[in-house]
Amino acid sequence: MASAKNFTTHFLEDWCKTGQKNEAMITMEILKLGFCSSAGNGNVLRRRCLRVKASTSSNQSVEIMKGKKVNGIHVGGVQYLSQRSSELLSENRTEESYNHAYLLGRFVENRFVYRQTFVIRSYEIGADKTASMETIMNLLQETALNHVASSGVAGNGFGATREMSLRKLIWVVTRIHLQVEKYSSWGDVVEIDTWVDAAGKNGMRRDWIIRDYNTQKIITRATSTWVIMNRETRRLCKIPDEVREEVQPFYLNRVSIAREDADSEKIEKLNDETAEIIRSGLAPRWNDMDANQHVNNVKYIGWILESVPINVLEDYNLTSMTMEYRRECRQCNVLESLTSMAETMTTEDSNGVNNSSRADLESTHLLRMEADKAEIVRARSVWQSKQKHLI
């Protein structure tokens, strides 16, 4: 005679997919498994049965770690999957689309806007314990690439459409402008929206906004201009009609930064006489190359900051940055970074004495080839004293 025993296990609320969250206990289904086994002499078959009863309770187990709730409830002050998943399921979303929303992102606003959520990781923060400008640029780039990959027009290239892949064409950025109001900290969750529009006859504009997931406040805005290059000849070319037909359905006449607020002024070209600091011998590494076989545009930020004075990096926040990309950089190239700093505003204390430590700064930058001095990137940055945020 076989004995029967009862056991209890717990399942995540979303697995049960129940609509009555306030009930103390909701019985689901009974799974009955039947199987046969032989007796010791091998002649008698005995039928045995295993009954499994699944149930869910509204009283979820919550653990506390470092003062924060975990197990899908709250992390970093943000309500996580238990709430958001119920919202998605209430919109009659499939489990596949639910996973896509958290792993890759999703389309909103009639598929004109692509939205993706990220958690700021420990390896994405800098010395001041907040996300770096490079981190922001990487997240913007990741969202843009996933936008193309999820659109249904992606080819086998790095962010290229099908028609572009057939013609050996790639996208290259010519200008990007970012305005950062607040840098996220480790563990913060950000939500990024991106969309595209035409830029003249042969360009495409891509915009982004970054929100704090918890407050939904916009903390970063960015806009960029892209053109098409032949992957083999490395020459710029016009957008073929077939490619234009692929991307036009996604065009949205909207800007993340108002035109009057965008940095559209020409960036001054620095030289040995006008630059205050010059750093030489900056060599790209193999890991700095991207899938299009040139240095990833995000890598230039680190080289630009190599010639910024250390006291500026320590005492100021980089609140705005504009970069104009002039030519490609390969692994065999050696670069120079040039920077010139200037105060844009000076405050006075109660005694009428200038306090330059609280003044905003504007810097001009140039990355160039060390061998022939050919321009790679011109840039302009705006810096705001960290001390101001404490007043």
UniProtKB/TrEMBL annotation:
InterPro entries for this protein: Acyl-ACP_TE_C, Acyl-ACP_thioesterase_NHD, FATA/B, HotDog_dom_sf
- Which GO terms of the cellular component aspect does the record hold? chloroplast
Gene3D superfamilies xrefs: Hotdog Thioesterase (3.10.129.10)
Which key words tag this protein in UniProt? Chloroplast, Fatty acid biosynthesis, Fatty acid metabolism, Hydrolase, Lipid biosynthesis, Lipid metabolism, Plastid, Transit peptide
One GO molecular-function entry: hydrolase activity
Domain of life, source organism: Eukaryota
| Residues in Acyl-ACP thioesterase-like C-terminal domain copies | 274-384
Where in or outside the cell?
Answer: Plastid, Chloroplast
Q: What is its EC number?
A: 3.1.2.-
Name all Acyl-ACP thioesterase N-terminal hotdog domain ranges: 113-246
Q: Name one GO biological process term.
A: fatty acid biosynthetic process
Function field = Plays an essential role in chain termination during de novo fatty acid synthesis.
> Record's family?
Belongs to the acyl-ACP thioesterase family.
PANTHER family, per database record: ACYL-[ACYL-CARRIER-PROTEIN] HYDROLASE, OLEOYL-ACYL CARRIER PROTEIN THIOESTERASE 1, CHLOROPLASTIC
Put simply, this protein is called Acyl-[acyl-carrier-protein] hydrolase
Organism annotation: Ilex paraguariensis (yerba mate)
